[in-house]
Design brief:
mainly alpha
Length: 82
Amino acid sequence: MHAFVAGDCTGAEFARGWLEARRLSQNNGERLRNPLATAFDRVFSLLEDYSIDPDLKDPEDLSDDELKRAVQDLMKNSQAFD
């Protein structure tokens, strides 16, 4: 999340990495507790509204900038990152 917000990776790179890390975490039986679980669920919801493949992007999908702003806001306003 920090790398994405800092501009060190694209929205697509962030999305691919996030989804892969989430899958591995769940497959390994890792579980999160609140408030981190809620924050991570919110990121997953944001990624559902984002298209990794620009050729498949719908007009209502989040742009890279919109995704980045949403992740920044989440990091700023969530107790999970205090």
